[in-house]
What does this fold into?
Amino acid sequence: MIKSIQQFEESGIKKLEKIIESFMKNPKDMASFVYGIRDEVIALGLDLIKVECYH
It folds into this structure.
């Protein structure tokens, strides 16, 4: 699980920062912001489940 969290810290947070930056440039595009955040959180959750199921 620690590896998944570290991976999220290295790549997932950068992706979240890009999503937030994009939203700040175009705040009317709320849907892209919400879906982008959702997708990253779901990806983290799936990685955590995968690690727990296979270890």
Summary: The CA atoms of residues 3 and 51 lie 9 Å apart. The chain is about 85% helix and 0% strand. The longest helix spans residues 2-25. The helical segments are 2-25, 30-53.
